[in-house]
Amino acid sequence: QKEVEQDPGPLSVPEGAIVSLNCTYSNSAFQYFMWYRQYSRKGPELLMYTYSSGNKEDGRFTAQVDKSSKYISLFIRDSQPSDSATYLCAMSFTGANSKLTFGKGITLSVRP
Amino acid sequence: EAGVTQSPTHLIKTRGQQATLRCSPISGHTSVYWYQQALGLGLQFLLWYDEGEERNRGNFPPRFSGRQFPNYSSELNVNALELEDSALYLCASSSIRTSHYEQYFGPGTRLTVT
User: Fold this and answer.
1) pLDDT, tens digit, for every residue of A16-39?
2) Under an 8 A CB cutoff, do A96 and B41 touch?
C-alpha cells in the first residue's frame, strides 16, 4: 500500500461546479497536509496547508482533514476555467528533517 | 520578489553521461529540496539541503547526489544516466520561518536521456 493515494482522474466538470478532490493515506503520524496546484509546464504552487485535523477555508477553496479516517479533501466552489490544472496532495510528519510525501496528482479540467 | 529559478530548462543527454542541474532559492530561504517528477509516478523526493548540509534523502541510488553552496544555491548531479532518469526535476525552497511544509517550487529542468 502506498503511503499516499490520490484518485488518478482525469476529472472534467462544467464551469461553476463544486469540485471535490480527495487523498487517503496510511501513516497516522502525518501531521501536515498540503494541497499544491500545478499548471502545465510549471512547478507546483502551494494552495493551502492544514496542521492536524479540521477545515481551512481560503476564498473558493476549502481544505478538510479527517485524521480518524486518514482522508483529506480539497473543495473548489464555483469552479473556473482558470482552475484547470493538476492538483497534488502532500503530507509530512512534524519534527526536523521531515520530507513531503506527495500523491500522484489529479488533472482537473473546467469546461467553460 | 524573485521566485525559485532553475537551469537549464531542458537538458538532453545520452545513457552513461552525467547531468548537472542548478537551482537558486528565493532570497532568504536556506532550505533547498530536489524532486523527480516522472510520468505516472508523481513527485518523488530526492534530496534536502539546509545550511549547506544534506538533511534527508529519498529512496534513490547514490548516483543521484548534490550539494548546497554558501549562497544557498544548489546543484543536483546525476551520474551514469539511465533511460528511466528521463523526467522533470523540480527544485523547491523554504525558509526556517515558514518551515518545511511551505515549499516554493521552480519551473523545473526537463531531462531527457536517449
Assistant:
1) 999 999 999 999 999 999 999 999
2) no
Q: Which of A34, A42, A97 sits opposite B55 (nearest CB)?
A: A97
pLDDT digits (tens, 9 = 90+) for B51-64: 899 988 999 999 99
Cell numbers given for A3: 503511503
Q: Which residue among A41, A88, A92 places its CB closest to the CB of B100?
A: A92
A46 touches chain B (CB under 8 A): yes
Q: How far is A62 from chain B (nearest CA, A)?
A: 17
Strand A106-111 to A11-14 pairing:
parallel
Please check the confidence at residue B98 and state whether its pLDDT lies above 80.
no
Check whether A52 has a pLDDT greater than 90.
Answer: no
* Residue B100 pLDDT level (bands cut at 50, 70, 90): confident
Helix and strand numbers, DSSP H then E, in chain B: 0, 11
**CA of A44: how far to CAs of A3, A39, B19, in Å?**
20, 7, 23
Residue A60 to chain B, least CA–CA distance (Å): 20
Q: Which residue has the higher pLDDT, B62 or A52?
A: B62
